[in-house]
Records
---
Amino acid sequence: MQVEEIKSLFSKHKETNLSHRYITNKHIVPLLNNLKEYVAIETIGKSVLNNPIYGLKVGEGKKRILMWSQMHGNESTTTKALFDLLNTLLDSDTNCKNIVEACTLYVIPILNPDGAAAYTRINANRVDLNRDAQNLSQPESKTLRTVFESFKPHFCFNLHGQRTIFSAGNANKSATVSFLAPAQDEACTITPNRKIAMEVINIMNDALQKIIPNQVGVYDDAFNLNCVGDTFQNENIPTILFEAGHYKDDYGREVTRELIYISYISSLNYIANNAVKGDNYKHYLEIPENEKCFFDVIIRNAKVPGNSNEKINDIAIQYQEKLIDNKIEFLPKIEKIENLDTFYGHKEINANDFAVLDVDNKLVKINYENVFVIINNEKIALITK
């Protein structure tokens, strides 16, 4: 299936009731109710705060694929794309019939509903569910494990979001989408099932390179059996980590949403049409590893206090994501004041050797939080609405 064809499918099936970054059970329950006519939807568990965790099954094929999103409650882009995918697969007029005929998908849209409601990475017990794969101390972790054991997937899609700090390699290229075929042992051996995961990632990377060249990365594959992906890989189930990252000016993650959708369709189509054996894994090893080369804003050539005289330096600003009145707001915060020649800003401002002042006309300092600064008597916005 060609990329332009997938983009056309996205335009037709994008779920318009989901947008921006704050996605909770309240947002998806009406959509699930609409889907009940077509698929069986069940409550598969309850969260710490007794909120339901939903699961649904799509397709009737022999190849079983388990997909779960918002294990980290504040990583919602992959959830939006899941509903775009469901709309597509349930439309009998699309040419995706091969997917539902060859595959059965089990989808958990929000594994961590408490974290989603609070817009936090962790659950209500302040546990990172992606470090609970062995202890299974949390009800959400037990729910995923129960589904894994009962559904017996042939593939696992572990769906996440990543911060704006990541680059695809050591370059001025944002890691807009990243993947990982997790390790399954301390030696990070390229095992047969890792090769299968790598081969599928190559298919997605090939599609994305046509749209975002050099903006796909892979994560470090250091082994941690407490991580869910590493555990499932360790149990010989090909597992793929998806990370929805930053595209220029796309803080609502709507462009990235489409890219994740393209990744879903291209990978599922490939799995449906092929016996994936891992023979074509090697190009995965050429995908650049993620580096932390970005800040949201860098103010270059700023006059700042020095040990003796004032000197010229750079100022790094990172946005803090805040849940305010059921909406995610971005508050700029100064993280560093130093030479930042090896870093890049998603937005860069040249201070032209002038001082950078706060709202009180004093030199800014680390931890200063505001939506603007003053440079040469001009108020400069640090974020574009």
---
Amino acid sequence: MLKTVRALSWWAVIPPVCVILLAAVWGHKVGGFGLVVVGIALVGAVIVAVHHAEIVAHHVGEPFGTLILAVAVTAIEVGLIIMLMTSAPPGPSTLARDTVFAAFMIVCNGVVGLCLLVGGLRHREVEFHVEGVTATLATLSTVATLALVLPSFTTSSPGSTYSGPQLAFAGTASLVLYAAFVFVQTIRHRHYFLPLETDDEEHPAAGPGRKAAGVSLLMLLLCLVAVVGLAKVESPAIEHVVAVAGAPRAVVGVVIALLVLLPETAAAVRAASRNKIQTSFNLALGSAVASIGLTIPAIAIASIWLKDTLVLGLDPKDMVLLAITVVVTTLTVAPGRATLMQGMVHLTIFGVFLFLSFVP
């Protein structure tokens, strides 16, 4: 009992400490040891944010739980993107595109591949609801095409950009699609997204009470504030490290997406190890849908105040990676069961994406 109380106290202490640190460094030039402390606090805030989101998610049950996680992660991602865009030099900005595309590739190949590998090694073959996963994949493919592919082919504005009306339409369409997806996932066809019954469910663990869930919700909000603010403080250091390493600027988007999705990846892999691959897919693919379906409208609204040109269209290399990811993911989920072979294919594509990010 004492061990549990101590663990809970640490999870409750970290969010206010991060907020206090943010208040101490905000508006000041931070260097050297201070940046290291801010970086550690930033990572800690992200991990603790998703931990508290998991507690709230456990309280409300599936599939509402994975939805809360996806929205929390997306809120962090949007905050990071906007903060880094405001601190970047004026000019065309590809940060939103790079981060959203990186999140898409990390989730659909890295997280899905790792979950299938772990589930396949431990349970030989994993099963899931085809109806729920294919509905998620159809939504994801559509919003990804709207946000990342079509801007490269429109003619109303130069380059891989949308004009103002086009951006407003794409953002609205993405938001409508995401709202419809949430309605189907949580109300109309909720059973398509519930985990299949397994032997692991014979003795389900008791969920947290309403008071614990309420405290975790408050801690989650504090973490979101801390993550966004600390990222603003840390952003010059991230840009400097990327420049010194001689890596493309797109690597910044990859770093942001990896940072935000790391705790959620751990949750998805834990579910896969317990033969809850449906929960893993709800977390992974659902967060990808939220990442694009909510990030693009948010960035579209923010672009009213941001003077930078928002570059959204992918280059041909990345379009090929996006296309093969959609095709392979469709082939993976179509049978309703998968093995470690499909996991290895997804992880290979993810490896190609990481390599080409650093060596384009």
